[in-house]
From TrEMBL:
Belongs to the bacterial solute-binding protein 2 family. It comes from Aquabacterium olei. It is found in: Periplasm. It comes from the Bacteria. This is Sugar ABC transporter substrate-binding protein. Pfam families: Peripla_BP_4. One of its GO terms (cellular component) is outer membrane-bounded periplasmic space. InterPro entries: Bact_Solute-Bind_Prot2, Peripla_BP_I, SBP_2_dom. Residues 19-297 form the Periplasmic binding protein domain. GO terms for molecular function: carbohydrate binding.
């Protein structure tokens, strides 16, 4: 049986170990960066890191099918960015455990009830990432106001943690399970929000425009890159609001992977309020090193933290 993976058909390897990295979708630049990091480290040691999955919006069944095919062909280790913890735990990850294949998660972890199925989580502290994004907004808009939050899927574990972190920071509350903001810290979430865009940038753009225009929010906070995935489309959208809302982009804040030159320029031109940037290349490299160590019988830390950094947009959008 042949295994279809993101690079084509899996060939037979004459030497070295084969590891699999399953992001949420293979055409997402963040998961492509993670795979490139994983593959670069693997090649240095004579191994391979395969990019498992399918293009298109994140789908747990497609992710699980890719994991199952890879396990059938044989892997020495598996790294997974979790789309839906319970489903994967009952299917592909249960099979990996039965087959004795060590599993690590990256970017998006399993929930606490299923931690026993993975040996390590590699990536940011997603709740802290959300808090940092919320603090950025609070510093830019200290008086608070009306806010809409944006995510991809209500069942996505790492994105849910980011939403909670944003609420903690904006509402200045201590509990990790912060509920919808209803005036805490001066911030109020509108009834239409949070937005869930199904991992589709075009839907995210429409939700963003509705928030900034008809709903007149003071801040649109996306815990992922979706509004700015296509820089030209995003710029046209916020510039198109100029007759009714000057400098609309200053109200948009995003969590994002490795930023492109175009996205950095949005910040410099004041067309984006701010961003918190993740390092997916570092996640991929650390994932390989953890899988390699586990495959050799070694131990790894339960949490391998990877960095993120804050970018503040210029005030007063320029043409």
């Amino acid at each position: 049986m042949l295994l279809c993976w993101a690079g084509g058909v899996m060939p037979a390897w004459s030497a070295g170990m084969v590891f699999g990295l399953a992001g949420k979708r293979v055409d997402d630049p963040n998961f492509q960066a993670a795979w490139r990091g994983c593959e670069a480290e693997a090649r240095r040691q004579g191994d391979r890191c395969l990019h498992l999955g399918e293009p298109g919006p994140a789908n747990v069944r497609a992710q699980d099918a890719a994991i199952q095919r890879a396990l059938e062909e044989g892997l020495h280790g598996l790294a997974v960015s979790v789309t839906h913890a319970a489903y994967l735990a009952e299917h592909g990850l249960a099979r990996a455990r039965a087959d004795g294949v060590p599993v690590v998660t990256f970017d998006s972890d399993l929930d606490a009830a299923h931690h026993a199925l993975r040996r390590s989580y590699i990536g940011p502290d997603n709740e802290a990432f959300g808090r940092t994004l919320g603090e950025l907004v609070r510093q830019r808009l200290p008086r608070g106001g009306r806010v809409c939050l944006m995510s991809a899927d209500p069942h996505d574990p790492n994105l849910d943690l980011r939403l909670k972190g944003v609420r903690r920071a904006l509402g200045q509350v201590d509990t990790a399970g912060a509920a919808r903001l209803q005036g805490q810290g001066g911030w109020t979430e509108l009834a239409r929000c949070p937005w869930f865009n199904g991992d589709q940038p075009e839907r995210a753009r429409r939700q963003m425009v509705l928030s900034l225009d008809a709903l007149k929010v003071d801040a649109l906070i996306s815990v992922g890159h979706w509004p700015v995935a296509d820089v030209a489309v995003y710029e046209a959208a916020v510039q198109g609001l100029a007759p009714r809302r000057e400098n609309a982009g200053e109200a948009v804040f995003v969590g994002i992977g490795t930023m492109t030159a175009g996205q950095v320029l949005l910040l410099r031109r004041g067309l984006l309020g701010g961003a918190v940037e993740l390092d997916f290349d570092a996640m991929g490299r650390a994932a390989y090193l953890a899988m390699k160590r586990l495959a050799g019988g070694g131990r790894v830390d339960a949490f391998v933290r990877t960095p993120f950094k804050v970018h503040v947009g210029a005030a007063g959008g320029s043409p």
